[in-house]
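4.2 Preliminary Data

To establish feasibility before requesting continued support, the project team ran the inverse folding procedure on a target of 209 residues. The structure was first converted into the token representation described in Section 3, and no sequence information of any kind was made available to the design step. The complete token record follows.
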């Protein structure tokens, strides 16, 4: 894969930290230590050798990595801060989607825990700009969780509700991996940040307060 679209945030002998634009499939990026959905932009860490890859992946599995996302959700959330804790598994009705399960449901057996924390940064007339901190790293976790709350990510074609309006000019889901804090093989804990992309900033400018 040609990486001309991927700008490098940080690089050393073991890791390369990329700023992934929306539209690039993370599965095509070699030795990535975690995943980002195709239409989610932001910080993606990759390894330059097998040993580093295992070292990084172990931290993600053990929930030792701090991750923050910037998201725009439809409607206004009831609480300015909150935690969402559910089980998550593939939807039997639509194989592309993840479904929320609650522990008491018979179908919940074997499903995986998913935990997401959030805080509202700015309220608009029909949307909330939020900072999201996923404590687990399940597939589509943030998107499924906010759809479950009744506030899907703006522009999300898969989890959004039917005929859901979307902000003017937004051509993808408003989800951006803005921050990553992780221990590197060098022994240093590093923080990596990605600026909000132009398309998302433009979308925010057009929103009514």
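Position-by-position output of the design step:
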């Amino acid at each position: 894969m040609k990486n001309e679209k991927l700008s490098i945030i940080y690089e050393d002998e073991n890791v390369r930290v990329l700023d992934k634009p929306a539209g690039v499939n993370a599965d095509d990026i070699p030795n990535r230590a975690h995943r980002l959905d195709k239409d989610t932009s932001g910080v993606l860490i990759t390894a330059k050798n097998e040993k580093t890859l295992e070292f990084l992946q172990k931290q993600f599995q053990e929930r030792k990595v701090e991750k923050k996302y910037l998201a725009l959700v439809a409607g206004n959330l009831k609480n300015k801060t909150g935690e969402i804790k559910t089980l998550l598994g593939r939807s039997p009705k639509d194989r592309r989607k993840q479904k929320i399960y609650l522990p008491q449901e018979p179908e919940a057996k074997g499903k995986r825990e998913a935990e997401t924390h959030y805080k509202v940064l700015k309220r608009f007339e029909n949307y909330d700009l939020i900072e999201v901190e996923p404590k687990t790293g399940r597939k589509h976790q943030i998107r499924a969780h906010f759809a479950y709350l009744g506030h899907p990510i703006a522009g999300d074609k898969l989890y959004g509700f039917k005929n859901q309006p979307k902000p003017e000019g937004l051509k993808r889901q408003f989800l951006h991996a803005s921050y990553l804090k992780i221990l590197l093989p060098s022994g240093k804990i590093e923080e990596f940040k990605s600026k909000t992309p132009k398309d998302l900033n433009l979308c925010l400018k057009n929103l009514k307060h």
